[in-house]
Amino acid sequence: MAPSAARLLVFLLPKPKLTPPPPVRRPRRAWAGTARCAPETAASGGFVVIEDDLSELLQILPRDLRDNLQNEPRRDQLLEVILDLGRRPEARFLGNTGGQYLRDSEISQLELEEAQRAIGEFGGDNRAGIEGTLHRISAIRSRKGLVVGLTCRVGRAVNGHVDMVRDLLNYKESILFLGRPGVGKTTVMRETARVLADEFQKRVVIVDTSNEIGGDGDIPHAAIGGARRMQVPEPSMQHRVMIEAVENHMPEVVIVDEIGTEAEAQACRSIAERGVMLIGTAHGERLANIIKNPVLSDLIGGVETVTLGDEEARARRTKKSILERKAPPTFPFLIEMRERHYWVTHRTERSVDMLLHGKKPLVEVRKRDNEFQVIIERWATYDGDGL
Fold it and tell me: How distant is the alpha carbon of residue 10 from its chain centre?
């Protein structure tokens, strides 16, 4: 560890007022400023897969590809299958940067048409699912509207991810997750919904725009436990369904994936002001991405330019025009999911203020060791790009 990345004996979070956090087990060799807690379920792969329904996804593929993947020793690590017209089909696996070709011949238009018939109708966001599963199929279309590519993504119900944030759930405050595609945001949303509904006994409503959290079909997947699910007819209506969920169904928690428009950001603020806990994801990898995004910056309180007087500017040793946070953040906690097992946790208000003032905020680094136990470290060297 670099000397500049000193661990501090400082707690990023205040003590929760209501439900105490679960006890933390501290091994003798744990260093100062570090907490460990064992995951609910762990195996050689880190987590136990409850259900992946992989056979259902393989049924939409050409027969030879189906046979190849059924005999693939890494099938439990299968992430997605790519079918592009005129190109060789490709399988991608967790932990691998590249893909693996499944055969030497290219995908034909007939094979894409057969797969499309097996899948059924795509929504307005060019996404479809398989009823009763968590799989997602996304289409690429030509200028004429024909499907010329399919991304068949494996959806799995997994236990263990929530251990990374279980202590934060006790604060009953809203949490925003950031991360690139494929880092596991939706998986975290799904398990968080189950834990809040079944273990914390909360009234949880999921606003499921593409049926990724609760699976395709009218009956939601068992992986969300007792949480209720509201489907969204069109992606552009997500903000309306969010408000409808609060006004009609009295939830204590609303879970929403992929917050990406100004209307959705405003809906989040409206929900938070009514005292409802929000668990959401947004487009971006770092807190700095949200600060600089004029559409989503309201999620972290918004940013405005303030002109200081001469004396005030001299006292602060800064320019007369500075950036300030406009309002309290909609999400008091913000988590950067750098990797599946490496997260950076912010107290949003504190981190935004310090970053706007050119300072480095205190953050918590949450990761798993070789035994897949959760380790929490306090760091004081965050600069938005790395630690």
Answer: 27
Phi-psi region of 134 (alpha: psi -120 to 50; beta: other; left: phi over 0): alpha
Contact 345, 364 (CB under 8 A): yes
Query: Which residues, other chains included, contact 104 with Cβ-Cβ below 8 Å and sequence gap of 6+?
Result: 88
Task: Please give the C-alpha separations between residue 272 and each of 64, 167, 276, 348, 354, in angstroms, as whole numbers.
Answer: 50, 20, 5, 15, 23
Residue given tokens 């008091």 in the structure block: 332
Whole-number Å distance between alpha carbons of 127 and 120: 10
User: Largest Cα–Cα distance of the chain, in whole Å?
Assistant: 76
What is the bridge-based pairing of β-strands 147-153 and 78-84? antiparallel
pLDDT single digits (tens) 146-175? 999 999 999 888 788 899 999 999 999 999
- Cα distance between residue 131 and residue 214, in whole Å: 10
Q: How far apart are CA 115 and CA 304, in angstroms?
A: 50
Helix (H) or strand (E) holding 290: helix 287-292
Task: Give the Å distances, CA to CA, from 255 to 185, 232, 365.
Answer: 12, 13, 24
Q: For residue 299, name the pLDDT band (cuts at 50, 70, 90).
A: very high
